[in-house]
Amino acid sequence: MPEEDTIPRVACLFIRETDAGAKEVLFVRSPDGAAFFIPGGRRVEAKLDEDQEEVDKKVLARKMRLDLDVELVLDELTKYTSFAAPAFGKEEGVMVENKYFVAHSYLGLLKTTMQIYALAWRRYDSSMDDCTEADRAAMSLLREEGII
What pTM value is reported for the model? Predict the structure, then answer.
C-alpha cells in the first residue's frame, strides 16, 4: 500500500474508574463526525535530532489542550500500543495507524470545545458500533490485558 494511503495518528487514552469499580475510556465526537473516537491528532514526523516518542507526546499535549482544555503531564504519558485499520469516513484503501498513549495524569477538567461535539466514557461492554475500527481494537486489547 502506498505510504500516502496511511494516515499517521497519535491517540490519548484517558481511563477512569467508576464508583462501582468499572473502568471506562474517554471517546469524543467531532462536530462533523458520525463516529466516536479516542481523542488525538495527526502524527508529526520527528526531525533527525528529535526523539519520535517525545514529538508524539508534544503533539498529544497540544491537541488535548485545544480539543479538551486539559494539560497533559508529559512525564506521566506512556506509550501503550499501535493499531492500523481502515480510516473511518475515507475512501476504501485508506488506513489510519494509531499510536496510543495512556494519560496517567492531567491538569484541568475534560470538556468539549469548538473542535469536540461530545464526550462519552465507554466501557468495553458498551456498544462499540459507532466507534472507529482501530479504537475498537484498542479497547479489545485493553480488556484482554485487564486494564479495563
Answer: 0.89
